[in-house]
Amino acid sequence: MKSLSVFRAFSLFLACTHAFFYNASLDTRSMALGTLNTVVMGKTAVANPFYLLRRAFFGHEKRSALQSTCPQVWYDIAADFRREFNGCSRYASTAIRFSFHDAGGYSSKNSPYPPANGGADGSLLLSDVEIAREDHNPMQGFREYMLSKWNDYKDQGVGAADFVQAAGNMGIRSCLGPVITTMIGREDSSEAAPEGTLPKAFGQGSDQATIVQLFADKGISARELAALMGAHTVSRSFAQQKSGVKYASPQDDTPQVWDNGYYSQTQHRNTSSAAASFASDVNLAVPGTNVGESYTEFGNSGASWAKAFSEAMLKLSLLGLSEDKVASLVDCTDILHWDVE
Ligand code: HEM
Predict the structure, then answer these.
(1) What is the pLDDT of residue 269?
(2) CA gap 111, 129 in Å, rounded
């Protein structure tokens, strides 16, 4: 008798939850399961058993974004980029900067708007207005290249925002940098990100305090900022001649090698070197400041930089996404596990 009432109560519970999930809007269902997921699993963006629950309750339209294994098309994309980024080509280094500039459109000072508040939403690829801004010079040609590549894959469910972030991570890998956790499933926006969210390399706004504040508004600490700046280890400048930087000047002595030389070379500049630091690099590197101390730390320890860079790069790639969206992403890091020639 007792087991019969337990069975009836359980059936009633199932019927209620079923009715709730099928009658509630997709967003309400998503929120409810997202909260459950956060409470039980914590806030980390990893695949977990709640994807199964989510898939059972969501309609067809959300299914592709909620699968838990990385779709095959991403392995094809990785093989494609791997050929063209090989040897830390210019495409590879520009892909890294491009991913930063797309995600960097986020600021807590922006008025919130979906899907990523100006952050990692693919708008740098999709918006003619955004890419035309001086902040992004000279990446307009690279955008054309990325658009033509993306056109080859978009019909297979490949989003622009994911494409941009994954390409950046493939650029890092092609330069022999660390494997960055690569998540897929963002939503795209063709609305230009708000202006004034990206750092200045010279002149007004290139001082340390302004840059630290700009990154703090994105939720990125001084140490994380220092770690990210290490990407200038593979940087060359093609559009800063008016600020006195020669065309194609590198920002450290070994622009085709992913190493921590950028840090010590920026702090102790050698006047006979062909490397040209931007005012922003020099201002951030000043010893004795918060950011400068991290420059010293990363200059002394490549391992410490690799760890901090990998974590900060993942954070950057998720800027502006809601917690619920982050929890629904699929881990495609495996596409970067290739043996780089
Ligand atoms: C204070 C922050 C930063 C400033 C002011 C800055 C500025 C610049 C500038 C002016 C260039 C040269 C563009 C050109 O003339 O061709 C450049 C290149 C580059 N930046 Fe940054 N950057 C910053 C942070 C970052 C971050 C956070 C990343 C990535 C995590 C990054 C990655 C790169 C890369 C890879 C290049 C080389 C691009 C290429 O080869 O086409 N930068 N950056």
Answers:
(1) 86
(2) 19
Rg (CA), the chain: 22
The Cα 46–Cα 181 span in angstroms is 10
Phi, psi of 330 (to 5 degrees): -105, 140
CB-CB contact of 291 with 267 (8 Å)? no
For the CA of 200, the closest atom of ligand 1 is 5
Q: Closest by alpha carbon to 290, among 235, 215, 232, 204?
A: 215
Structural domains of the chain, ranges and CATH numbers in brackets: 16-66 (no CATH), 72-197+330-336 (1.10.520.10), 208-312 (1.10.420.10)
Residue of 60, 101, 268, 337 marked active site? 101
Distance from residue 1's CA to the centre of ligand 1 (Å): 72
Q: Give the pTM.
A: 0.83
Diameter of the chain measured on Cα atoms: 90
Residue 270 has a pLDDT of 84
The ranges of the chain with pLDDT < 50 are: 1-4, 6-7, 9-66
Comparing CA positions, the residue from 236, 200, 245, 229 lying closest to residue 291 is 229
pLDDT at 146: 98
SS3 330: strand
Q: How far is the CA of 244 from the centre of ligand 1 (A)?
A: 16
Q: Which helix (H) or strand (E) holds 249?
A: strand 249-250
pLDDT at 271: 80
CA of 232 to the centre of ligand 1 (A): 6
| pLDDT for 338 | 77
What's phi and psi for 249, nearest 5 deg?
A: -65, 135
- Show the 3-state SS of 308-329: HHHHHHHHHHCCCCCHHHHHHC
Amino acid letter for position 258: W
Consult the annotation and say whether 252 binds a ligand. Answer: yes
Choose which residue among 174, 235, 252 to substitute to test ligand 1 binding: the one with the highest number of ligand atoms within 8 A of its C-beta.
235
End-to-end CA distance of the chain: 70
Nearest CA to ligand 1 atom 27: 228
Closest atom of ligand 1 to CA, residue 96: 35
Amino acid 122: pLDDT? 98
